[in-house]
Amino acid sequence: MFSLIKSGGILMIPIILCGIAATYIIIERLLYFKNLRKNDSLLKLQLIAVLLKKDYEAATALCVACETPFSQVVQKAISVRNLEDKYLKEIVETEMEAVIPQYEHCLTLLGTIANISTLLGLFGTVTGNIKAFGVLGAGASMGNPAVLAGAIAEALVTTAAGLFVAIPSMIFSNYFTRLVNKEIVILESSVTEVVLKLTGHLL
Questions:
Q1: CA torsion, points 38, 185, 111, 36, in degrees to nearest 10?
Q2: Domain locations in the chain?
């Protein structure tokens, strides 16, 4: 395996680094969204009970302990619950916009990694072919077969490695983007329900 990686040349270093970064981001986001759903589901059930009792201190404490975008918006809504409806709505909408980047954390970087990995693989293909043609141009017949094989290996290995990193990175980037859009819709719906309870429009 090491000899195969080594045959890809110096460009394998940034490709491997991209692969490590992409793997970290993918695992981190998968765990984040898994815990997000679990924590928010539990918080919603607990909020229903305390809001029916109008125990806003307990509701705030639950939100502080949860530490999710939903809990952050609800906490803000509770703190301004005595304002007029139109002002409360504006503040809550502003807070929702402020927490959206938490869903999108590192997703732009993941998409960038997918593009960079593809380009690095393509760059390796070009440099490998340049070396191969250089060997052919320098030799009488087929040049030095060992050097020629090394140049071709560099082109193929970097291309394969770049695609190996880029393809799953792109797939998960698109998956997380759709997931973020879904979570934002759920956030808006859940927050609206809580706000209606706070303002007395929903029992």
A1: -10
A2: 2-198
Alpha-carbon torsion, ordered 24, 26, 32, 36, to 10 deg: 180
Alpha carbon 35 to its chain's center: 15
Q: Quick check: 106 and 29 in contact, CB under 8 A? A: yes
Cβ–Cβ under 8 Å, residues 73 and 92: yes
Gap between the Cα atoms of 143 and 141, Å rounded = 6
pLDDT of residue 61: 93
Give the whole-angstrom CA distance, residue 81 versus residue 55.
13
In angstroms, the Cα distances linking 192 to 17, 50, 93, 150 are: 43, 17, 10, 62
Q: DSSP 3-state assignment of 1?
A: coil
Q: What percent of the chain has pLDDT over 90?
A: 54
Q: Tell me: the pLDDT tens digits for 22-61? A: 999 999 999 999 999 999 999 998 988 888 888 889 999 9
pTM of the model: 0.84
- List of E strands, the chain: none
